Amino acid sequence: MPLNMTKIAYRSESIHTLRAWVEGQPDGAVMTTRYLPKRHEEMKGGSLYWIHDHSICARSPIKEFRQRDDGRWNIILEPRLILVEARYKRAHQGWRYMEEDKAPRDLAENEQSGDVLPGKLQNKLRKLGLV
What we know:
The chain is α+β, with helices and mostly antiparallel strands.
């Protein structure tokens, strides 16, 4: 089973702007990171799962890791965004590993995710012990 990673879609206003950016790069979208993930070999066949508004909402398959001239690393993603069943995920800096068995399932082409509370509301309800 391939290893995946999660990352905040921090420059994305919505899932639509994320899709436009990822799918608008013909050679693949490029994410930059300071360090090569130690478990990068396990990520062959894995995906980068996008977090938007405190929910994992989509994924992009990882093509490769490529070192830049300045020592940083580019994560090259396939130019496609696959919607997944939305799942609450607390925000974090950088990226985090996610095992395949913990990953949300892909949605069928015409399937929509069930109702998911907005991340901020869900966080407040969680603090009150209501969710």
